[in-house]
Specification:
heterodimer; A: alpha+beta; eight-stranded antiparallel beta sheet; two-stranded antiparallel ribbon; globular; B: alpha+beta; 4 helices; 19% helix
Chain lengths: 206, 196
Amino acid sequence: MATRGFRYYASNASKFIRAVAAVHLLHTYVLEFAITGGLSMLPTLHTVGDHVFLDKYNHRLGRDIKVGDVIVISKPTEEHTRICKRVAGLPGDIVYCDAMPKAPTRAAGMPDDLVGLSTGVTNGRTGKYIKVPEGYIWILGDNGMASLDSREYGPVPKALVVGKVLWAVYWGPFDWLPSWPRQIGSNIEATDLSIADFLPTTPSRR
Amino acid sequence: MSSISSRFVCRRLRSTRATFRYTAKTVLIGLSWVPVIAYVANHVVWIGVIDGSSMTPTLNPETNGLAKDVTLLWKFNAKNYSSYKRGEVIVLRNPRDPEGTVVKRIIAFEGEEVRTRFPYPESTVIVPPRHFWVEGDNVHSIDSNTYGPIPIGLVTARVQTIVFPLGRWGSVPTAGGRDPRSVVVGLSYSRYPKST
């Protein structure tokens, strides 16, 4: 039996490289499936176990986003990290920057020496109205009490936007199967979920 | 008779369908390499033509706007904050226009206090975590003095090598920024948490 020569391995390796590059291209520029976590987007997204579909093709670099969209951006103050928040202001909008209490920042996982430290952009502007500059957006987490967002970072450049969240699939850590996908965003139909459905021991009220 | 005529008969060696299949197959194989080239162009290195005069005289020293420098854009390791040195020329997305990119020089890093130039509204600024203070070499450049410190997420590539014109082929000098009036004064953050 002839041994497998260089051509066999080379052709398989080149097919592998091409396949990986094609998947990477789709994943980075078209659609991505990402895992979210944290308290800052309650009740829209669960604390743990929510998997979201990001539309990158239409909304990378902040194209075509509107107020109310849930988007994922690169975190301004940390590299290789992304955060998921809701757009609250577009360029030219006037937004209100409310004061962020220091204690919830601690709850969100910040080390003690950085609690209350701001990026300097909104320093001195809490409690004031801010006009969002051209090319920037104002983002807010749905759970204002435990969210690091534009009240801390200031207006965020649109170029940091990675994609817009379209659907979320909840697969809880103790669930056998994932839940049905649900739409996320500003134009969703009203669901019959309430905050009570996200609490572990409270029965849902209608 | 038949032997003489067979010498002058033109025979198709391949059917039209076979040629079509061969062409289609070659084209598809060629297209399948496009994502690989796209990956290299976006994550390793690509060629960039520098536009504008904000980095004069380091880049685009001709002021007539016709001669544009061609440089290598190193995208490998571009999003790694600690890999940048003071004075490196970088390409970043324009904070005021997400579709465009600008080329500037890094002046200051996170936690450093920068003395700003006109038209920045405050006289000193502490650069936030994982942000850069960038300025163009030209006095008239629109840079951090207009839009403030920029986050690492906006940085796309490093400009290290000029490819064309051949007379200035070579590395882009790290010293060449405007006179160090915007000089770093001290570190205000003692540490920054590592990402988990």
